[in-house]
Design goal:
Elements lengths: L2 H8 L2 E12 L2 E12 L3 E5 L6 H7 L10 E9 L2 E2 L7 H7 E4 L10 H11 L6 H11 L3 H4 L12 H14 L4 E5 L7 H14 L4 E5 L3 H7 L2 E9 L5 E10 H6 L4 H7 L5
Parallel strand pairs: 2-10, 3-8, 3-9, 6-7, 7-8
Antiparallel strand pairs: 1-2, 1-4, 4-5, 9-10
Helix pairs in contact: 4-5, 4-7, 5-7, 7-8
């Protein structure tokens, strides 16, 4: 039994990709990916640019649907339910599977209204003040903003804005949080703060993070998937999954030579 099998047997699978290929028009962007995302773990997607990391990430909450030429083959499931079945509402998918983007993107509203926006749209009937405070505490931002909740979220520093975006995602009470290079625009101190937040959040949430930072992947994740690219005869690039295992194995004893070369910085 492999280590990957052990860890997935001990935890519930939340997201599953089965033979997933992604096309944009006639262009094959990602080929035949199968992997399981375990509950209450942080899973990192690593690999060179253009290998399909973000493409797969956005399949999980159907953000690729917004691209007209997008087409997916295979099955993407959430707790065993096909996310692309005809009766599935993409809006509900995105409520349960939240997203934090590469560049902090607060709404041009107050800090309070940034957090309250999603719950209001979803018809939240509880104590909004309590929900706002809880979400900000979960994102380790409450102590820094509790006396300026009516000020614009755009007035915060870059690192604070990204934590505000995390709090905003948490406010709609998702099950999964997807993060697409959430620290790439931040300084090292802000990055460390986000990583500390992630360690706390995985007690309650399942997290998938795309990162180009090998040190970050090795620090924060429990599982790591390494993707690579294959050039085509027409000059294109097709992404594919090389291997997926516990993070310590991917970084210290991978089964594929290309994984070893990538994580040690010899290419990429």
């Amino acid at each position: 039994m492999t280590s990957k099998t052990r860890i997935l047997n001990q935890t519930q699978t939340v997201l599953r990709a089965q033979n997933v290929s992604v096309y944009y028009g006639n262009f094959l962007a990602l080929r035949d990916v199968s992997l399981d995302i375990p509950k209450n773990r942080i899973t990192a997607f690593i690999g060179p640019s253009g290998c399909g990391k973000s493409t797969l990430l956005r399949c999980y909450n159907r953000l690729n649907d917004l691209i007209k030429s997008f087409r997916v083959q295979g099955q993407v499931s959430y707790h065993g339910q096909n996310l692309y079945a005809p009766q599935i509402d993409p809006v509900e998918v995105r409520r349960r599977i939240g997203m934090v983007f590469q560049k902090p993107n607060p709404f041009p509203k107050s800090i309070y209204d940034n957090i309250a926006f999603g719950p209001r749209i979803n018809g939240f009937k509880g104590d909004m003040d309590e929900l706002v405070e809880r979400s900000l505490r979960q994102a380790a931002l409450w102590d820094e903003v509790k006396n300026k909740l009516r000020q614009s979220g755009l007035a915060l520093s870059g690192g604070q804005q990204q934590r505000l975006c995390i709090a905003r995602a948490l406010a709609v009470q998702p099950d999964v949080i997807l993060m697409d290079e959430p620290c790439s625009a931040l300084d090292p101190i802000s990055t460390l703060r986000i990583e500390e937040v992630l360690h706390e959040l995985k007690q309650q949430y399942t997290i998938v993070i795309v990162t180009h930072n090998m040190q970050q992947a090795s620090r924060v994740s429990d599982m790591t998937a390494f993707f690579n690219v294959e050039p085509t005869e027409k000059g294109g690039r097709i992404g594919y999954l090389v291997e997926y295992d516990e993070t310590q194995i991917i970084f210290h004893n991978p089964s594929k030579e290309s994984t070893q070369e990538y994580v040690s910085g010899r290419f990429g």
